[in-house]
Specification:
Layout (H helix, E strand, L loop, with lengths): L2 H14 L21 E5 L4 H16 L3 E5 L5 H9 L5 E5 H8 L30 H10 L8 H11 L4 E3 L9 E5 L1 H7 L4 H4 L7 E5 L9 H8 L5 E5 L2 H9 L5 E5 L3 H5 L3 E2 L12 E6 L4 H13 L2 H11 L7 H12 L3
InterPro entries: ABC_Gly_betaine_transp_sub-bd
Pfam family, one: OpuAC
Protein name: ABC-type glycine betaine transport system substrate-binding domain-containing protein
Amino acid sequence: MSRRGAAAGLLAVAALTGCGGGAPEQPPATAASPAAEPVRIAAGPTGQTAVLAHVYAGRLREAGFDASVVDAGTERADYLGALERGEVEVAADYSGNLYLYLRGRAPVGPASAAPTGEATPTPTPSPDAEDGGLAEDLSELLGLGEERADDDDVLAGVQDVLPEGLRTLEPAPAENTVAVVVTRPTAVEHELTDLEDLGPVCDELALGTDLDFAGRSYGPEGLEDAYECVPGRFVPFGDQDDLVDALLEDRVQAAALFTASPAIEDNALVVLADPLNNFVPQRVVPVAAEDLPDAAADVVDGVSAQIGTEDLVLMTRMTSARDPYTPEEAARYWLEGGDDT
């Protein structure tokens, strides 16, 4: 997608969500004085968190802080270490992956795999994958017994296991978790609204996934345990565009995608609800140093309150277009016209 196309798509969605109609008036920016508090924000693990870092920085500068975005690495060990050492004061992350990392578990991986084409063999789950799905594993880690973990449980868990000197700020409504999606005709044909509906017809369908899905505990084992869903075939893809094409062409009848993927909106795909929370919750949550000034924390909290999943979709659309915007450019777009202040 070109820049023109990406911007057109952004404006169209902004109009539908009530965010369009020209850039709203913003509070006048306050020039940072030599005494202004410096706030350094880590770009974080993904393109989305990099955009958010520049959005935080823009709002903080408007409030009079000397804010800047710092490349502290895309690995959690890197930017959490930078937070602990006082090299940065804020970083955005995703609640589920962050919790699993802090508990010593491997995160579920990036939102898109490197393009390697389509593979055809049915994958075999990793022997290290635990029974019961990731939500059950989370429940055990969080001490919930048989109750499955939800957003609030994971967010509370993150706060409990953060290193000393760090804290979480207000989470955004936005999430970017894995979901099973189908085309509208498939949803109508099988009367599908959630994964409980999918279970009885699962063996009739092929499920397209990324290359790592089979080895994750929410993958084949999680779907079978939670929903008695055993697809007729698992078909792994190394490129999301190929996966979406296969879904639209009915070469697979369901696909595991991230909820902030523009492909869902662009193709009117139906996201099947996950009432048993098989897939790990992934809310956007800023992590900050304990000594971050309260006034700066309030600014970041104000941004979080305005960030929904649709905003992550728009940010992804801009930064992944054929002629992509930089994270700073995408943030400037959002600051000038993508919010409703």
